[in-house]
Amino acid sequence: MTATWKRSTTNRRLGAIGTLSVSLALVSPTLVLAANGQAVASLTSWPIWSVFLLGAFTVALVAYSIARMVASFRSGHDAYHIVTLSLGERIGRGTGLILFGAYLCFALATPSAGTAFLADLCGIKTLSRVAWGSCAGAMTIAALLVLRLRGTSVARALLIIEGGGIALLVLLACAILFGHGQGDGPVAAPPGGVGGGLMSALVVAFLSWAGFESCLSLTSDTRNPQVDIPRSLYATVALTAVLFVGMFWVIERGFAERLGGARALVNTPDTLSALGVSYLGPWSARAFGIAALASSFAGLVAPMTAATHLLSSLIPARRHGLALPIVGGVVLCGQVLIPWVLGPRLPPVLAYGLLASCGAICIMVVYQIVQLGFARALIDGRLLGSPAELVVPLAALIIMTAALVTTFQAGGSAETTALLGVAWSGVALGLGAVLPSRHTATSSSP
């Protein structure tokens, strides 16, 4: 495959580890394990770990499609370039705009979660809107300062933050597995819906991986993107799948033994802190609180990094220097407005869930577009492979469509976020179709 534009590799500094750190930070496994299991347990009679196992399978299908196209399309540097090459430039631009909106939603949402963790760590039961906005704004300014560092320094900082949280998770898992149980009842969540509420719960599990593909936005800064990007994708999915499936099995066991089972799990604000106090001692509540706060900060830096790189790809080269100030300004202004707009009705954690879910719906739409692009590239012969590989996009599309339809049927805030996410996706695709072209690309068989 050839293209009329290429970017010099002299400035590329990141390898597979660096791109992995950004994807891992945006997934924020410590944050997911602390806060997402409660929603799954309230929706389904299936074990939480089994729901996340199905979610891991679906995300692995998406990772396979993306990695195959990145490795085979040997040109380009844009995060949405694989869609451009497989489905055309107009849909590619629209996909880039959808991703940009999704990353902005994550960047706007995460400081709210960090504010809630900070308040809990300091023993503050309620936060005023002024304090909420001040804390979130301070996190954003700190993230902007970090992003002024060299790319490798940012990647190293993100990896250290998530590595510390994972080390605490391993310690907690060992304490639960090798500790002495004080109960023997199995974890049985409240029943819910058809099939025990599996598809409703799968939405929560699947959205926990939203943004795992964010390393694509660093393609232009990666030394060997055709090798390093696929490795980062597979490593992110494999590591988080082991963490989510294994740790949720451990979490359910820990609650069944000492904390009252699934009923107590559903009503626990932070599962990791609750288990830590019971199995490791009071000190662990503060340790897990700090880890969750650090994970939320990493989860702010990562989407701002991805959004900045993506905006640089969407705007003319002479304006690349404006990408970070634009992203930072939007996120900072958002932190001032969000507490006043959502504060009277929603506490910080619920505001985080609302905004992050909207971004996650956008990501789900992008994943579906990627599957269509992968299928078309295989059918047209632009991607060398076996026709049997069409099973991958077909299976992923069926599962994601079912999850998305379930979200629309849920009603309440879930339906609202789904409508907002799909609405922005439609607007972005429309803008991609009418905006003037930046590049002219010609391609042949890879």
From TrEMBL:
Residues 21-252 form the Amino acid permease/ SLC12A domain. The keyword Calcium does not apply. It is a multi-pass membrane protein. Keywords: Membrane, Transmembrane, Transmembrane helix. One of its GO terms (cellular component) is membrane. It is found in: Membrane. Pfam families: AA_permease (PF00324). The chain crosses the membrane at residues 44-67, 97-118, 130-147, 159-180, 192-212, 233-251, 287-310, 322-343, 349-370, 390-411, 417-435. One of its GO terms (biological process) is transmembrane transport. PANTHER family: AMINO ACID TRANSPORTER-RELATED, MEMBRANE PROTEIN. This is APC family permease. It comes from Ameyamaea chiangmaiensis.
